[in-house]
UniProtKB/TrEMBL annotation:
Gene transcribed to yield this protein: IRF3
InterPro entries: Interferon_reg_fac_CS, Interferon_reg_fact_DNA-bd_dom, Interferon_reg_factor-3, SMAD-like_dom_sf, SMAD_FHA_dom_sf, WH-like_DNA-bd_sf, WH_DNA-bd_sf
Principal cellular location given in the protein's record: cytoplasm
Keyword match Nucleus: yes
Protein's recorded name: Interferon regulatory factor 3
Any one GO molecular-function label of the UniProt entry: DNA-binding transcription activator activity, RNA polymerase II-specific
GO biological process, any: lipopolysaccharide-mediated signaling pathway
C-alpha cells in the first residue's frame, strides 16, 4: 500500500515548528499567525529557495517526485494555495505578495482558542490521554471534509423497491451507487479565464434614450450588432439585430436618422472574448465609440475611452483590473468596479452632453461580472460576513464564505498576472 497523503494543516504546522524552510515562520507566541513567502515566479530575483514550501508540499502530497517528474513551480504554488483556501479554519490575514522587498502572505487560524497550541499538554484528571486543541481542530477539519464528500442516497419512491434484488432494501455493497464530488477541487472563479467557456451577455439598445431592445444570450464566437439587413451571415459571431425604430419612435425625423445609422452598420460591430479580454472590431462604415461606465449610465463626463477601429482588433475590457478593483472595493475603497460596455453608434461620444440625445446607444453587460459585484455588495462590500452563493453563467451554485470569496479573487489576480507576464 502506498503512503497516504498527509493532511495539509498538521503537515504545515510541523514545518512551521521545524523552521527549516526559508521565510516560513510563526509570527506570534500563541502560534496562530504565520507567514509564507509569496514571490512571483517570473521575478528576476526569484530563487529556488523562495518556492521551498510549495515544492515540499508537492512532494509530501505525491504530486511531485524528484528525478521522475519535471519541476513545475506555478502548479506547486497553485495547488498549495488551493489547499489552504479550502480550509474553513484558516484565513488570509494580510496579502503582501506585491511587496518589492519581501513578498509574502500572512495567514491565521480563525478560532485562536481552538488552534492556539501545537504541543501535547495533558488535560487535568485525564492522565496522558489529552489531545491538543490544534489537533482537535484538524480532526474537525477531517470530519467536515468527509461529510462534504458524502452524498446521501434518497429512499426509493413507493412501489419502487422492486428495482432492487430480492431481500435488498437499497444499493448492495457489491453495487454501490457512485458518489460524485459536489465541489470543485480548484478555484471556481477560474471558469472566467477558460477560453472555451463562453460569457453570457445582456445587450440593451436605446434610440434617443428610449429602450427599444434587450436580450440576454450566450454567444459562441462572440456577437455582432447589426442593422435591419442582419449583415453578412457568413461572418463569425452571432448577429444581434437592432430593431426598426419605426416600431417604437413617433418622431419621423429621428426615425429616419436612426435607420441611416443602422443601414451603415454593414457587417456589424463585433465583440468577442479572448482569454481575460474582450475585443471589438468595426466591420461596416458606421463609426463607433466606446467606454466602460455604470450599468445605468455611461461615463459622459470623462468622455469615451476609444473608437472601435475598422477591420482591426481592439481591446475594450480587461478582467484583471476589474478583479483588482473588486478586491479593493471589498476592502473598503468605496469605489465599485465598472463592467458595462457602452457603444455610441454613428455619432461622436456624448461628452458633457445628455447621452439620451444620441441616436443609437448600446449597452453590453457580461452577466458573470455583474454577479461577482452583486456578491460583493450583498454584505456591504467592506464588511461581508455571510456566505455568498456563486452563480457563473451555467455553472452550479457554490456557497462561499466572504473570506473564501476574497481569497479566490486574490488567487485569480495572481494567476492572471502570471499569465500576462508569461505572454509578454
Amino acid at each position: 500500500m502506498g503512503t497516504p497523503k498527509p493532511r495539509i494543516l498538521p503537515w504545515l504546522v510541523s514545518k512551521l515548528d521545524q523552521g527549516q524552510l526559508e521565510g516560513v515562520a510563526w509570527l506570534d507566541e500563541a502560534r496562530t499567525r504565520f507567514r509564507i513567502p509569496w514571490k512571483h515566479g517570473l521575478r528576476q530575483d526569484a530563487q529556488v529557495e523562495d518556492f521551498g514550501i510549495f515544492q515540499a508540499w508537492a512532494e509530501a502530497s505525491g504530486a511531485y517526485l524528484p528525478g521522475r517528474d519535471k519541476p513545475d513551480l506555478p502548479t506547486w504554488k497553485r495547488n498549495f494555495r488551493s489547499a489552504l483556501n479550502r480550509k474553513a479554519v484558516l484565513r488570509l490575514a494580510d496579502d503582501r505578495s506585491k511587496d518589492p522587498l519581501d513578498p509574502h502572505k500572512v495567514y491565521e487560524f480563525v478560532n485562536a482558542g481552538v488552534c492556539a497550541t501545537a504541543g501535547f499538554p495533558t488535560e487535568p484528571g485525564r492522565g496522558g490521554a489529552g489531545l491538543t486543541n490544534v489537533w482537535l481542530c484538524f480532526l474537525q477539519e477531517d470530519i467536515l471534509e468527509l461529510l462534504n464528500d458524502m452524498v446521501l442516497v434518497p429512499l426509493p419512491d413507493d412501489g419502487a423497491l422492486g428495482q432492487y434484488p430480492q431481500h435488498s432494501w437499497g444499493p448492495s455493497l457489491d453495487n454501490p451507487i457512485p458518489c460524485p464530488n459536489p465541489g470543485p477541487s480548484e478555484n471556481p472563479l477560474k471558469l472566467l479565464l477558460v477560453p472555451e467557456e463562453q460569457w453570457e451577455f445582456e445587450v440593451t439598445a436605446f434610440y434617443r434614450g428610449h429602450q427599444v431592445f434587450q436580450q440576454t444570450i450566450f454567444c459562441p464566437g462572440g456577437l455582432r450588432l447589426v442593422g435591419l439587413e442582419a449583415g453578412d451571415r457568413t461572418l463569425p459571431g452571432q448577429p444581434i439585430v437592432l430593431p426598426d425604430p419605426g416600431v417604437s419612435l413617433t418622431d419621423k425625423v429621428v426615425t429616419g436618422y436612426v435607420r441611416r445609422v443602422l443601414s451603415s452598420l454593414g457587417g456589424g460591430l463585433a465583440l468577442w472574448r479572448v482569454g481575460q479580454r474582450l475585443c471589438a472590431r468595426r466591420l461596416g462604415h458606421c463609426h463607433a465609440y466606446w467606454a466602460v461606465g455604470e450599468e445605468l449610465l455611461p461615463d459622459c463626463e470623462h468622455g469615451h475611452e476609444g473608437e472601435v477601429p475598422k477591420d482591426v482588433d481592439s481591446d475594450v475590457f480587461d478582467l484583471g483590473p476589474f478583479v483588482t478593483d473588486l478586491i479593493a472595493f471589498m476592502e473598503g475603497s468605496g469605489h465599485s468596479p465598472r463592467y458595462a460596455l457602452w457603444f455610441c453608434l454613428g455619432e461622436s461620444w456624448p461628452q458633457n452632453q445628455p447621452w439620451v440625445k444620441r441616436l443609437v446607444m448600446v449597452k453590453v453587460v457580461p452577466t458573470c461580472l455583474k454577479a461577482l459585484l452583486n456578491m460583493a455588495r450583498s454584505g456591504g462590500a467592506s464588511s461581508l460576513e455571510n456566505t455568498v452563493d456563486l452563480h457563473i453563467s451555467n455553472s452550479q451554485p457554490l456557497s462561499l464564505t466572504s473570506e473564501q470569496y476574497k481569497a479566490y479573487l486574490q488567487d485569480l489576480v495572481e494567476d492572471m498576472d502570471f499569465q500576462a507576464t508569461g505572454e509578454a
